[in-house]
Design brief:
Layout lengths: L13 H7 L1 E3 L20 E17 L12 E5 L6 H11 L4 H4 L3 H8 L9 E6 L2 E11 L6 E9 L8 H15 L4 E7 L3 H9 L3 E16 L1
Parallel strand pairs: 1-8, 6-7
Antiparallel strand pairs: 2-7, 2-8, 3-4, 4-5, 5-6
């Protein structure tokens, strides 16, 4: 998997990999067993596998409100179910273009999250410029746990806005929101090879807590 070269690009859809354990990452959108052209192409198709991905669980303390800013042209709003799905999926695909296991999220998969017992639109922030979603930070509150956890679930910027220092502002906004909800800590799942992102999170006080290895099914290739 390609490693990010910019700390502004956050691979934080990885929490979903941990939950699913095994993820089909087929950028063509086909099923895990049949390529869409299989009926007209006689070649054999098969999945190739990575043995595992190393996912770090990191935690930080929230001792004070963080200071951040966005350009005046940006607008911040909460996700509106029934209105923002298409725009967010487009932004997500751009933000995670190098990570199809997150960037290829379908409308059905998004709705699974939106219909989950833990979902609250007030925890899902969108950043727009000229009515276009250019960034987002999605907080997940694990209310099902004996001691509830607050997680930076997904955070990202579309490609043309990466590398402009906006990622830190997105993260600050998410962490401030968690603190306002009464939590004094926040967690995040991070792709361990993503060194620039790890460096950014460490600057925010995140420390490695545990490691999980998640098996990944890669794109279909023909023989």
């Amino acid at each position: 998997m390609a490693e990010h070269q910019n700390s502004d690009i956050f691979m934080v859809g990885v929490a979903q990999l941990v939950e699913r354990r095994v993820v089909v990452a087929d950028a063509a959108g086909s099923s895990p067993v049949t390529h869409p052209n299989a009926s007209i192409c006689p070649q054999k198709w098969k999945l190739h596998y990575m043995d595992s991905r190393e996912i770090w669980l990191m935690r930080t303390e929230l001792n004070s409100q963080l200071t951040y800013s966005f350009p005046d042209s940006f607008e911040i709003s909460n996700f509106q179910v029934g209105k923002d799905e298409t725009g967010w999926l487009t932004a997500n695909a751009s933000a995670f273009a190098e990570h199809p296991e997150q960037g290829d999220m379908s409308l059905e998969q998004l709705h699974e999250n939106l219909n989950s017992f833990w979902f609250d639109p007030k925890d899902f922030f969108l950043v727009r410029e000229s009515n276009k979603i250019i960034g987002f930070v999605w907080v997940k509150i694990h209310i099902e746990r004996p001691v509830p956890d607050a997680e930076i679930f997904i955070i990202g910027l579309i490609k043309e806005f990466q590398g402009k220092g906006l990622g830190a502002s997105l993260l600050s906004m998410g962490l401030n929101h968690i603190r306002k909800k009464g939590f004094n800590e926040a967690i995040i799942y991070v792709d361990a090879p993503n060194k620039p992102a790890l460096t950014t999170y460490q600057k925010f006080g995140f420390k490695h807590i545990s490691t999980q290895h998640v098996s990944i099914k890669k794109k279909l290739h023909h023989e």
